[in-house]
Write a sequence for this structure.
């Protein structure tokens, strides 16, 4: 989130959040209650991140969760925000959540498109919009789907992590080989 531009921070938070404000936001994430999902590129850089915040049960937010997402500019246009939304929906419904809520600025077309494409009802009030999506109840199929998605994500991350280690070892061996050649050529001279 710290690498987001001021414009992106404005769209994500509704104001141009500075680094300290983003730090406070992260400090307030309840990792025992909420969920944070991410997509990593081949270099293991976090390029898309979503926050699924489970809301306390009140008359207005009974069994509800709020969704927010950020995608780095270099990774946009690839459907990562929608993929994280779909994953969050699946995750939430398997935890007995029946309503997904998205608060967004009315000008945040990408976020509102994700909500509308999922079938959410979007209500606009001035410069802000609220999308509400009713979630179907969990099923054995949805629980299995989430389990498979989670395992696929873990495997993907491990493959990328191992590929990165192999690249480091290859570079290290290349440097050692070059160093040995230099030593040999200096001994011959």
């Amino acid at each position: 989130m710290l690498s987001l531009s001021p414009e992106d921070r404005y769209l994500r938070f509704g104001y141009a959040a500075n680094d300290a404000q983003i730090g406070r936001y992260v400090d307030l994430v309840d990792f025992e209650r909420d969920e944070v999902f991410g997509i990593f590129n081949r270099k293991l850089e976090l390029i898309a991140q979503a926050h699924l915040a489970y809301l306390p049960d009140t008359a207005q937010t009974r069994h509800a969760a709020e969704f927010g997402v950020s995608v780095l500019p270099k990774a946009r246009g690839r459907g990562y925000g929608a993929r994280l939304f779909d994953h969050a929906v699946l995750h939430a419904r398997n935890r007995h959540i029946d309503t997904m809520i998205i608060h967004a600025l009315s000008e945040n077309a990408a976020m509102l498109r994700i909500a509308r494409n999922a079938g959410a009802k979007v209500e606009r009030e001035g410069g802000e919009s609220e999308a509400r999506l009713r979630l179907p109840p969990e099923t054995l199929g949805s629980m299995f789907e989430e389990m498979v998605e989670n395992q696929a994500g873990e495997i993907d991350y491990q493959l990328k992590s191992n590929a990165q280690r192999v690249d480091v070892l290859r570079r290290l061996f290349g440097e050692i080989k070059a160093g040995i050649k230099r030593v040999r050529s200096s001994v011959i001279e």
Remarks:
- Residues 140-188 form the longest helix (49 residues).
- DSSP finds five helices and six strands in the chain.
- Helices lie at 6-13, 19-28, 80-93, 109-117, 140-188.
- The chain has a mean pLDDT of 91.
